[in-house]
Amino acid sequence: MSTPTRRRLSDAPFLAAATGAGPSRRPVWFMRQAGRSLPEYRELRAGIGMLESCFDPELVCEITMQPIRRHGVDAAILFSDIVVPLKAAGIELDIVPGVGPVIANPVRSVADVRGLPRLRREEVGAVTDGVRLLLGELGETPLIGFAGAPFTLASYLVEGGPSRQHEHTKALMLDDPQTWHQLLGVLTDITVEFLRAQIAAGVDAVQLFDSWAGALSLAQYREFVLPHSERVFAEIAEAGVPRIHFGVGTGELLGAMGEAGADVVGVDWRVPLTDAVRRVGAGKALQGNLDPAVLFAGSTVVEREIRRIAHEADEAITLGATGHIFNLGHGVLPETDPGAITAAVELIHGLPVPL
Fold first, then answer.
1. Once rounded to an integer, what is the mean pLDDT over residues 29-38?
2. 146 in Cβ contact with 16 (< 8 Å)
3. Domains in the chain, start-ordered, CATH in brackets?
4. Which residues are catalytic?
5. What values do phi and psi take at 293, rounded to 5?
6. pLDDT for the residue numbered 8
7. Among 9, 20, 76, 242, which one is most buried in terms of CB atoms within 10 A?
8. Which residues are annotated as a binding site for substrate?
9. How many degrees, rounded to 5, is the angle at CA 350 between CA 345 and CA 351?
10. CA distances from 240 to 113, 150, 207, 274, 286 (A)
């Protein structure tokens, strides 16, 4: 992979914290910061399907920019969805409102795996065009690209849609490991190509979302997931952009996730940052981990919790973390008051930076 000419972001706190440098202020961004909590987003998306929006470069640019203008966060994250590369490759699926991704033909056999298409760079041209538009709008604000991790993509493909128990996924994984690893090999190829396309277009960092990995035991994760996530991070390492690894309910997996190769490990709200650094190990930055529901609790509670997490982050740095990026422990909830998000950003920016 040829390394593109990167933007020179002289004083970007997000990149400084991600790479172990000293940020000028505490950096903060929020997963799902561009989306349903913003009235301007709902107005813009009225009558336009999710996937249609993700393949429209102008909409991608505008939606990604909305929280930058409103909240003043320290990084933008590309407006997209983890199933976009699957759709682009030719897998028949849709994102159904109120349900999520729904797969027309679930993948449950070796023949199904062999029939899966591969992703070609030109098939995500609308996404990379959106990245290029954003680079002209963002100024000194870094842009995060992202992809779904192979396990999470597999869980949608095998289940046929969102699942609470992941019973079909686990059955395939445990009963037919050879087919399982073939499936994750295909999905790793797709994920790597999607991330490489975004990096070539100019994103400044990437995040790998393993949203459903928390459904697994540590032994299952190590055997059936970790090798594929490791390959994702290894194959984009030469680009030199910060790599973030995040999952939900993954407290028991943090040590293994820390081994996968990312520079930053995301932590959900269930695990204190001081515990997280001990599990992940020294030498990596942490990201997180305010409970998204706290933003509903009123300004006094929000301030108390933000100050608590900042204190934990400072302690985690003394224990070996190379930096901290403030974030939620998962995405912004749809009914969140945008004013609470803006106020949280202002408070975080006003806290002293750890020495």
1. 95
2. no
3. 13-350 (3.20.20.210)
4. 32, 36, 45, 81, 156
5. -70, -20
6. 74
7. 76
8. 32-36, 81, 156, 211, 330
9. 105
10. 32, 22, 14, 28, 18
